[in-house]
Amino acid sequence: MPTATVLLVDDEEKLRSLLKRIISLEGFNVLEAANIKSAWKSLEKENVQVMICDVKLPDGHGVAFTRQVKEKYPQLEIILLTAYGNIPDGVQAMKNGAFDYITKGDDNDKIIPLLSRALEKQQLLNQVQVLEKQVGKSYRFENILGKSPLIQEAIDLAKKVALTNTTVMLLGETGTGKEVFAQSIHHASKRSGQMFLALNCSAFSKELLESELFGHRAGSFTGATKDKKGLIEEAHEGSLFLDEIGEMPLDLQAKLLRVLETNEFIKVGDTRPTRINVRLITATNRDLQAEIADGRFREDLFYRLNVFTIQLPSLRERKEDIPLLAKYFLDHFSQKSTYHPRTMTREFVEHLFMQDWKGNIRELKNVMERAVILATGPELRLENLPLEMQVAATRGTIMSAFDLASVEKLHIQRVLNHTKGNKAETARLLNIGLTTLYRKIEEYGL
Questions:
Q1: Looking at domain 315-393, which CATH architecture does it have?
Q2: CB under 8 Å to 190, separation ≥6 — which residues?
Q3: Most buried residue, 72, 113, 174, 242, by most Cβ within 10 Å?
Q4: Per-residue model confidence as pLDDT tens digits over 172-228
């Protein structure tokens, strides 16, 4: 780890020399400045992590200087020193962004622990920034896999609406990537620096969903021991993604409609409204028009949510993207695999094309993870697919007697894979004689 740089700002030369010696002995790189003007020059030239600054300087006040420095270098931590403790100055220093405010005379004992804590805080903030950048990169539209016209059309629509504050509704079957699209819309918007929160409306009871979404006041119901912010309030200035919106109870739909109409809501157990500014992105795999006709979804809410709709295609509608998606999942999961398979046999890929993929991309992901786990070599083979997928392509087109033989062949192959080719162990697990196993291996060409 690089040596941290500390800037000492104090007009008392003897004090600076003493502090420099103490701090240097701990392995820090120490710079000195006698006033604010020279301190600015050091900050502009050097990568300073922590500044230790006197409150009273010849050309200014350290508390006001703290605010100016934090505006230009928000990651830099500042420890203020004063000859006489002053509560108002201390309070203002903390408001201006100082890490701590200590009285001279105590600094010899306190300065090194304070420096260590200030650096720990800075490192944590840097890590958070790196993670936020990684998340932002992960959810860029360029990372949504697929070259088929249908998925490209959906991406183009999402890119256009991302630049606005318009409410978006994502339609599509389970597993088509609705949350990935919601994240990408958020990270491409002007709200990207704020929170993105997601809630699955089908995962909670009505009471819990109301509390999770709108929050509650302490004592509003049994177990509510303290105030709680709901996700709508937590996502203020950011984006809130409500998945399975069609599962939301009717009375909560009315509260959500109020949010969209007035930008305010009332927490459970509260009497005053809370104002918010949040972008709403919703998703459903239901036919909301049919839900409206059956009285299970509010028509007025539907028109508020359905301002801009994006239909996400099912995987069976974009089968030309299967090899690309499968290769992505193969590369991802093979990193943790013993054999690190890198390719797929032609037969393996052909069987991927033959499936209906009712679970869409999520189902393909699960199948690929399982196949990588079962792989015993550098490539994925037909026998690494689930048994039902291996025989699905032959069902209905081949005589049942041969179909039964196919099932037996595939089952023997799977057990051989499990035992890593140990014939005796395979025969034991299959509960057949070793001679019978050798005969079937020859018969099926295994």
A1: Orthogonal Bundle (1.10)
A2: 163, 165
A3: 242
A4: 999 999 999 999 999 999 999 899 999 999 988 888 899 899 988 887 777 777 888
